[in-house]
Amino acid sequence: MSLSKIELVELKRAKALLEKPSLAARTSAMLGAPIDKGVKMLPERFQKAVHRASEAAMMRALDMAVKSHGIDGKMASKDRLHKFAAAATGALGGAFGLAALAVELPISTTIMLRSIADIAKSEGENIQHIETKLACLTVFALGGRTAKDDAAESGYFAARTAMAGAVSEASKFLAEKGFSKVGAPALVRLVSLISSRFGIVVSEKAAMQAIPIIGAATGALINTLFIEHFQNMARGHFTVRRLEKIYGSETVKLAYQSL
Prior knowledge:
The chain is mainly α. The chain has one domain. Helices cover about 75% and strands about 0% of the residues. It contains eleven helices and no strands. About 0% of the residues have low confidence.
């Protein structure tokens, strides 16, 4: 079987979302500020703070995703509502700069996870399944490219391949034992892998908020761009997954690479 013309258009749109320039590059173009260079100039203690905040946010997201009261699809499925909520937290975080990151990031991440789950549901996913919930979490690892990534290793499928083993281990552990052991190696490994790439985008966001004038004046705009970035990643990711369930992963991957 091969994809229809309509499905190829959908896949092309998904690829455009998944392979688009980084958040820093797009924000730099909008604000006229070299955000990516600013990130490189940040002190090591700042990078460590971002790493800690990213890991804490991911662990909270994992906790929310897998527990019974987690992402259940009952929240309003409107991207604009989630963007508005993210903008509100961004305005508050921007006013206080880096000092607010540890407080603001878990809130923003929770809002984004809700939005990602909504998008997954709109693409036919059952968000009560552990595998789908973990797929929602891995969206945070998409679109955060490191300086070490080359063209062959920085794409969407490469990121998924890098995550596959950890996702499988975590899924098996959660299916057998649930979330009773937060420090389980399988869960710690997954959170570490996701947060390491999520932290790249967080660093870009925080670098913008670290600039006093930009941070205070456009904190809401920065968080809107931040959540929009991951909404785009989610929309592309779950479009690909929907097509894979019909045609198989290899067929979709070949079609994706040929576009």
